[in-house]
Amino acid sequence: MAAEAAEEARQLRSCEDCGLPEAAGLCPACASRRRVDGLVRDADAVYAAYRRRHNRRTKEAAEQAADAAGLRTAEALLGRLLDQLDAARRRASAA
Ligand SMILES: [Zn+2]
Q1: Cα of 16 to ligand 1 centre, how many Å?
Q2: How far apart are the CA of 79 and the centre of ligand 1, in A?
Q3: C-alpha span between 72 and 61 (Å, rounded)
Q4: Could you give the percent of the chain with pLDDT greater than 70?
Q5: Which DSSP category does 18 fall into?
Q6: Could you tell me the CA-to-CA distances from 40 to 3, 9, 44, 50 in Å, in that order?
């Protein structure tokens, strides 16, 4: 009997969201809207996670490109310095 009374009381509760009476706490329309809201939140979370990973990978690729460019610049500079050193040695040995 207590269970029946509790169930009856539950059925009589109005909708938490729109106040529709005797909706067992949540009417079908609001239950459906909550499911859609939940799906939208899930989709937002998935999209945000995708954006974070994409941004991290883009940043890593940019850093690698900058590292490679910096390395090429350093190699070119070293090459010029070695050429100048060779030239200076040749001048020194010719003198
Ligand atoms: Zn409702």
Answers
A1: 7
A2: 76
A3: 16
A4: 100
A5: T
A6: 36, 32, 6, 15
56, two tokens: 């991290």
Q: What is the pLDDT of residues 29-60, one digit of tens each?
A: 999 999 999 999 999 999 999 999 999 999 99
Which pLDDT score, from 0 to 100, does residue 64 have?
94
Task: Identify which of 30, 29, 36 has the alpha carbon closest to the alpha carbon of residue 17.
Answer: 30
Residue showing tokens 């941004």: 55
pLDDT over 90 at 95, yes or no: no
Contact partners, residue 15, CB within 8 Å, separation at least 6: 23, 25, 26, 27, 30
Helix intervals (H) in 1-95: 2-12, 28-94
**Sole residue written with tokens 């539950």:** 10
Residue 18 CA, ligand 1 centroid: distance in Å: 4
